[in-house]
UniProtKB/TrEMBL annotation:
Keyword entries, A-Z: NADP, Oxidoreductase
An individual GO BP term: pantothenate biosynthetic process
Organism placement in taxonomy: Eukaryota, Fungi, Dikarya, Basidiomycota, Agaricomycotina
Name of the protein in question: 2-dehydropantoate 2-reductase
GO molecular function, one term: 2-dehydropantoate 2-reductase activity
Coiled-coil ranges from the UniProt annotation: none
Pfam families membership: ApbA, ApbA_C
Amino acid sequence: MTRTGTRIHILGIGSIGTLVAHHLQLSSPAQPMSLLVRSPNTFPTSLSSTRGSVKTTSSGYNIESSISSSPSLSDRPIKSLLIATKTTQTSSALEPLIHRLNENSVITLLQNGMGVYQELISNFFQDERQRPHFILGTTPHAVSPSEQKGQIYHHSAVGDGFIKWGLVHDSSKNIGETTLEDWLWDYRSKDAHISSQHLEKLEIPNGRDDLVHLKDTMASLLDMNDLNSQLLPYEDLNHAILLKLVVNAAVNPLTAILGRGQITNGKLKEIPYGINIVDQIVKESSEILLKYLDLESAVPMYLEKFGYENLKKIVYDTIEATRLNTTSMAVDIREKRKTEIDYINGYLVKMGEELGFKTDINRMICDMIKFIEEEQKLSN
Ligand SMILES: CC(C)(CO)C(=O)C(=O)O
């Protein structure tokens, strides 16, 4: 489907970034897209993904430099930027591009963990008049890199997995009294399914070019049917991100600590000592989140969702579905890289502390991962 030409730039062409770039290009071939990479000269001009026994390839990307020291770094404004970097690298990766972003731009974040949005606001966009639109996303699609740059393995079976997106509320961007969420849903019930065709029919109010970029970006994101891409009201999206946070808090650091990158997720269930620790992390995380949601005055249905038994089921099901995977954090430890612990268990600790709540288990998990990180740094 042809859009009005809002070019989407993608920053962070790791496994998830490659998956999304590839599917955006396959589902919207006329969509202009740029991949922002450190070494444009050696980056392939096509991407491919192998799902089951089927390999698909996409091409037609502009390959641009993402680093400030490069003479080929363009100065043209970026209308839409999708960020799929590691949480730990987001601020430094974004810095050379900041002068190309403004209040008409759209930034889409698709990452594990939480806290990057707040970090970017505080580092770069404190003035809300110059703040871009922000879309946040979450996905359980399991992807791993192949030995070849630009090629990935997509482990989620066809039909499995989803990507959920939501628009961060920003009252300075309202259309008169109307919030952008109301505009996007066109006054329908918030349970209504929003398709790209629906978005394309929305009228852009005079003087609001920023909404052209927002609408185009969302329509392209929603066209990725193979990834089961959905737009949710922000409150629902926030709950989906919190559920994923608990999965990552319970699974990722344990596989990293207990296996140092050598065990797959399934081992946590096969060996009962593993699941005992999983349970303790889930229990404490559930208590923190229930307290948080109570303060946010969420409806009882959601409170049930974050109860210990339901969270345990979600975590166990994810371990089962990804039993042959190695978590991203275990791989980081194996490769002696900095992990995303501050944005996962560290985020839960911060949340708990702000609520005056006990966070001993998540804090101990953070300390263990940080111990390994330090020890690896010293022995390097
Ligand atoms: C779902 C899970 C735990 C799959 O490994 C993951 O998100 C990760 O590795 O970061």
